[in-house]
Structure formats: structure tokens, C-alpha cells
Amino acid sequence: MKTIAIFTLPTKPEALKYAEKASTLLSEMGIEVIATEEFCQELSTSSSVQVQTCKLCDFEKKADVLLSFGGDGTMLSATKILMHSGIPIMGFNVGKLGFLAEYNTKFLAQSLRDLIDGNYRVVERTLLECEIGGKKHFALNDVAMEKKNTSRMITVSAWSNGNHVADYKADGLILTTPTGSTAYSLSCGGPIISPGTPVFCLTPISPHTLTLRPLIIPNSAEVKMKVSSPTGESSFVMDGNKHISVKDGEEILIRKSEDKIKLIKPLNSSYYDLLREKLLWASEIPYRKESGDGDE
Predict the structure, then answer these.
(1) What is the DSSP letter of 9?
(2) What share of the chain is helix, strand, coil (3-state, %, to 5)?
(3) Which member of 72, 114, 171, 239 is catalytic?
(4) CA-to-CA distance for 16 and 74, rounded, in angstroms?
(5) Largest CA distance in the chain
(6) CA dist 34 to 22, 48, 53, 54, 224, Å?
(7) Which regions of the chain are under pLDDT 50?
(8) What residue segments make up the domains of the chain, in order of their start?
(9) Which of 182, 183, 201 is nearest to 192 (CA)?
(10) Which CATH class is domain 127-258?
(11) Is the model's pTM score more than 0.85?
(12) Which residues sit opposite 125 in a β-bridge?
């Protein structure tokens, strides 16, 4: 491993602090560090000397690994940069939950040493390929058809491999990968899906008909969506940060991409360890004495 790219968002000063520290530690280990010019301008004079400026579009040509500092939103932005490159991404969590950005900044130095020494594992995550108006777009977590400029419900019609699934009269409809099952879909009542499971999930957003429940489908299926809205248009959202306006009757095709995202994970942890930690499944429930057992 010779060159490592550093990535963070300019709106996160705390992330910048750890990213700067990482660049110093990596330089001391003899690793070339690259980052955008905007990032380098925010560094102190001593740190900026150790970092080579590089355009985002050139990261995939020069980097062996990309380090992301921020939350899961920053990780999703990082995946857009390396979506088709095969270069793995290592995420340091400076946000909240951190399902994608799994590494803890408290152990930054040791984590970087583990990276250089090869003490990590690489997992592959499925990408969604969306075709809209003849153009292709990609997402890692999920896509969602949502209402736009109205408080009224929309109707999203969905098909799986040409078979009509349902007409969802709701605030919208989510199609999630297993990676995104702990994000938007989960907040709408969708299931948690282990990342290696070859499925997608269709999750309605506040459906008018209560019997419309989340539906698991194979990820080999091609999903088609059409929408009808009181305003004549809706919003198709990819990974929560890219919005495309969709007119009534316009077709959207969604399928599994041939490309996959590679993520670096700790060697001695599993997805279930992550769930227990982030969702507090292993929390100790304090014993509460019954009334009459003594002081409470």
C-alpha cells in the first residue's frame, strides 16, 4: 500500500480534525497521502506539506485506499467517487450511528497501523443501477419515490420482472439494498437485512392501506416504478442526497448493478457485533426490585 486518499466534507470541522491527524500519522509511516485542494487549504501549515493535492476524479487513478471521515452520509458521498473503481473505502465515524463508517476515531492510530499491516477484511456491497430517461444513476443504500410540493399522497405503481406488485397509495415507496436496510427503510418499518443476503426490499412510506407491508424480493429482479401525483411530478431520491424530478407516467427501471462497492471492516468483528453495538441490543437492563422488596 503506497497511496491513501483522505476524504471529508467541508461542513464537518470535527471530521477535518481527525482527517488532519490521520494524514500526519500516515506520512510518518511512509505513506503518500492525497486529498482535494479544498481539504489541503483547511490544514495547518505543517500538515499541508505532507498531503498532495489531487482532484476527486483522479482518486481512483492514484489511491490504493480511501479514508472517509464523517458519518454515513460522508461515506455515501465517498462511494460516489469510487463507485466503479474497485478501490476499498475505510470509514471513520465522526457522526452518530455509523453503520457504514464503522471505525472509531478513539483508536485512530491503531486502526491505521492495522490498515498498513493488512489486519482488516474487505466486504462487497450491492449497488443499485437506476435508469431514468435513458440515463443511468447509482445508489448504495436505497432509492425512494417521494411526493413533491404537496401534502397529499401519491400513487406509486411497482412491478417486479414485469409482474405487477401493487399500487402504493402513500407518501412514497423505498427500494432498499441490505446495506440500506438500517437507514430510511428501517424508520418506515422495514426489516434489517444481513448484507450478504441476495434480496431487495420494497418499503412503503406511510401507506394509506395498512395491509401494504414491506416486501422482500430477489435482487435478480428488475423493478419498474411509475408514479401519479396531484402535482403531476414527484421526486426520485438516491441515497438521500441526489434528487431527480419525475413526471407522472414516466418509467424508472431499477436493477442490481454489475459493480460493487468495497468496504474495509475490522478483522475481528461481524455485522451482528455492529448491530448489537449500534442498536444497543446487548444493553444491560438494570434490575428493578418489585414493590415491597426494599428501597427502589
Answers:
(1) -
(2) 25, 40, 35
(3) 72
(4) 12
(5) 71
(6) 12, 10, 6, 6, 41
(7) 288, 291-296
(8) 3-118, 127-258
(9) 182
(10) mainly beta
(11) yes
(12) 261
All three cell numbers of 58, joined, read 483522479
Q: Which amino acid is at 181?
A: S
- Among all chains, which residue has been given the C-alpha cell 407516467? 249
Grid cell for residue 24: 500526519
Closest CA to 207 of 183, 232, 173: 173
Per-residue pLDDT tens digits for 203-250 = 999 999 989 999 999 999 999 999 999 999 999 999 998 999 999 999
Q: Is 117 helix (H, G, I), strand (E, B) or coil?
A: helix
Whether residue 72 lies in the annotated active site = yes
H/E segment holding residue 45? helix 45-48
Q: Residue 283: which residues within 8 A CB-CB, separation 6 or more? A: none
Rounded Cα gap, residues 169 and 102, in angstroms: 36
- Torsion sign, CA atoms 40, 14, 63, 141: negative
Distance between CA atoms of residues 49 and 56, nearest Å: 19
Among the listed residues 229, 271, 260, 266, the one whose alpha carbon sits nearest the alpha carbon of residue 246: 229
112: cell is: 491505521
Residue type for position 71: G
Domain 3-118 CATH class label: alpha beta
Among 102, 177, 104, 113, which Cα is nearest to 139's?
177
Closest among 82, 53, 77, 48 to 66, alpha carbons compared? 82
Q: What does the pLDDT read at residue 293?
A: 45
User: Residue 203 in contact with residue 189, Cβ under 8 Å?
Assistant: yes
